[in-house]
Amino acid sequence: MTPRSARGVRTRNALIAAAREVFERDGYLDARITDISKAAQVASGSFYTYFNSKEEVFQALVAQVQEEMLHPHLRERTGITDPRELIDASNREYLRAYKKNARLMALFEQVAQVDEKFMALRIERGNAFARRNAKLIRTLQENGEADTGLDPLITAHALSVMVSRMAYSVFVLGQRIPYERLVTTLNKIWENGLRLTPAEHPEG
Fold it and tell me: What angle in degrees, to the nearest 10, is found between the helix axes of 102-112 and 152-171?
């Protein structure tokens, strides 16, 4: 349910925040609605005013984290137009958000393996990243800045998966790679993969 009052919005948000706490602490299978309600400091019956099940509040949590990690309208927010700077800013925002949400990202991966609905959400999240990146790649191709022989959507999927799996490896599995080296390496692979035209440097 979408709350109509400010109090309702606060209560729903409190339940989502509490769900995050309980899911991260207990895992998806062992999390209980009573514990979520207790953490949100609301009566157990109030939970069902906003969500029908544990699965539904988990889905709301997934949507909230996805919105944060997609960092929409990057160019509009930053004013960046140089493709290399855009790639760098995008990768940095994604990796920072992944690190912040690492425990949840690990949980999302686990739940997707046992629940078909969340597998579909996992796939759609990947598609959303790919569509956004394909738009950038297509623009670069139209401007003569990237290899026009590449399929924008397939390339976007490949590069996006690379970044997300490296984030999982470093922030969930604990692979020891310094953050700055991780970012610059991923950026370079993006640039090489797209065969970006050489950056222009002012003379003198």
Answer: 110
